[in-house]
Structure prediction request, 157 residues.
Amino acid sequence: MRHGKKHNHLGRKTAHRKAMLANMACSLIEHKRINTTVAKAKALRVFVEPLITKSKADTTHNRRIVFSYLRDKYAVTELFKEISVKIADRPGGYIRIIKLGNRQGDNAPMAMVELVDYNEIYNPKGKKAKKSTRRGRSKKASSAQVEETATEEKSEE
Prediction:
């Protein structure tokens, strides 16, 4: 019986599972978004979020710990230089899992895994200019303002 064993083995031996999660984590850090199965996405969240938390404090010791998990110095560099700066004020929850439906070939449930701060659609802090819904009215108002300024300039002359 597997009492108290909470991590998913994903049908792989330990070395294969660790290598797969390290590769998926490096891809996520590089591309900021990857597609995978739901089970692998949940296992990836448990694997990556502590590493992102470690990257907040840029010390040699933390870099070596993260490198021992990822085994890719470019991913470690990007994690500590770019991602840690962007997520510095976030207390946790760095990854979002969005379910996409089932895969065509084997009907496996698929999901998109992404870094939360790198999605502009869901990011409430993203600064977007509000678009006017009344386009015709704004043009009329702007032309009326132009006419008023033109009449004021003529009256001053």
